[in-house]
Design goal:
Blueprint lengths: L2 H8 L13 H12 L11 E5 L2 H16 L12 E8 L5 H18 L3 E5 L2 H4 L3 H10 L5 E10 L21
Antiparallel strand pairs: 1-2, 2-4, 3-4
Length: about 180
């Protein structure tokens, strides 16, 4: 089996990370894989915010938890040290789909580098707050962006889960 198909079959969402920061070179490779994702009309309209600063990571994790549970003290990012947020330019009709492909590419790239990842929702709500909109402005991201997903990346703490059996009856052929 080729490496891409193997990675697709083996990659799993990780829910327990070591606090150790992966090398910046690996994070850059993961981001690059995201930037090479297919996009509608080749417009490459999405952006990625890479958060490796622990204070900012913890602030985003707190907001994410507050949105989900009302409790800002739970770590919905499972201890992962890196957050790669994929945001979609709302002016493009395929923006959310494009940003979703970015996240998929980055998950596979992380796996191929021996790192774990998990896609955590609520980026939409996070980046609707004035504080996080201001962060985008401060970073020089001009435009109207919608948060699509937070990709948590880091070293797996423990064993990666095994794949669940695939459900039957999900493919319909027209020959």
């Amino acid at each position: 089996m080729n490496d891409v198909l193997k990675a697709i079959k083996e990659r799993r969402s990780i829910r327990k990370f070591k606090p150790d920061m992966p090398p910046k070179e690996d994070i850059e490779k993961i981001i690059e894989a995201g930037l090479y994702a297919a996009s509608g009309h080749g417009k490459q309209s999405n952006i990625i915010v890479a958060i490796t600063n622990k204070e900012m990571r913890d602030k985003l994790a707190s907001l994410n938890s507050k949105i989900l549970t009302g409790d800002p003290n739970k770590d919905t990012f499972y201890g992962g040290p890196v957050i790669l947020v994929s945001l979609a330019d709302k002016s493009f009709p395929t923006c959310v789909y494009d940003s979703t492909l970015v996240l998929g590419n980055m998950m596979l790239a992380a796996h191929s580098l021996g790192l774990g990842s998990i896609w955590i929702h609520r980026a939409k709500e996070e980046f609707e707050t004035e504080e996080w909109k201001q962060l985008l402005k401060d970073l020089g991201a001009e435009g109207d962006y919608e948060g699509v997903g937070n990709l948590v990346v880091g070293y797996i703490d423990g064993e990666a889960p095994k794949a669940a059996p695939r459900k039957e009856g999900r493919v319909f052929w027209v020959e």
